[in-house]
């Protein structure tokens, strides 16, 4: 997957065999676009959120050219793909997903965090069908 500030790659741990999603961002691109503060803020928020509604971030790494967020690999894919496939949901299914979104935003607000990038592409579905909110880059 490729986004505005970088890309996400699948990685596998040599020691455990577990899969992870690694969000990779170019430092020069972030500096050019004056987005360095957003990355620092995203790092703080990702490590502070402790809830099943958010992707878990395991590590923040960097080298001379890039920044890396090591996160859980969520197998179900993007919510956007599900929306395109079904076009609309039955009321009980819509309520199921909407309640998860409300609870995730409620949790963020209780932590003093405002999520400012809510869109189907920033919501993943895990292997059990539950939602995971990702991409805290624009959050305050």
Write structural notes for this entry.
Helix content is 34%, strand content 24%. With 140 residues, it is α+β, with helices and mostly antiparallel strands. It has a single domain (6-133), classed as Transferase(Phosphotransferase), domain 1, CATH 1.10.510. The strands form two sheets. A four-stranded antiparallel beta sheet has the order 1-2-4-3. Strand 1 and strand 2 form a beta hairpin. The longest helix has 20 residues, at 91-110. It is globular, with a radius of gyration of 15 Å.
How do the helices and strands line up, and which of them pair or pack?
Elements: E1 6-12, E2 19-26, H1 27-32, H2 36-48, E3 57-62, E4 66-72, H3 79-86, H4 91-110, E5 123-125, E6 131-133
Number of strands: 6
Largest sheet: 4 strands, antiparallel
Question: What is the level 1 CATH name?
Answer: Mainly Alpha
CATH architecture: Orthogonal Bundle
Mean pLDDT: 90
Q: Order of strands across the biggest sheet?
A: 1-2-4-3
Number of helices, where a helix is a run of at least 4 consecutive DSSP H or I residues: 4
- In percent, how helical is the residue content? 25-40%
Short summary of the structure?
By secondary structure, this protein is an alpha+beta fold.
Relevant terms:
140 residues, alpha+beta, Transferase(Phosphotransferase), domain 1, four-stranded antiparallel beta sheet, two-stranded antiparallel sheet, 4 helices, globular
């Amino acid at each position: 997957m490729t986004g505005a500030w970088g890309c996400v790659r699948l990685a596998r741990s040599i020691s455990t065999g577990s899969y992870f999603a690694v969000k990779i961002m170019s430092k020069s691109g972030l500096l050019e676009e004056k987005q360095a503060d957003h990355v620092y803020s995203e790092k703080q928020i990702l490590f502070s959120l402790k809830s099943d509604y958010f992707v878990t971030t395991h590590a923040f790494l960097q080298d001379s050219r890039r920044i890396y967020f090591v996160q859980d690999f969520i197998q179900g894919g993007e919510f956007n793909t599900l929306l395109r496939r079904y076009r609309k949901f039955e009321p009980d299914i819509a309520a199921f997903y909407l309640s998860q979104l409300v609870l995730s935003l409620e949790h963020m607000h209780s932590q003093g965090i405002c999520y400012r990038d809510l869109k189907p592409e920033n919501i993943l579905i895990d292997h059990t069908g539950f939602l995971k909110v990702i991409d805290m880059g624009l959050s305050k």
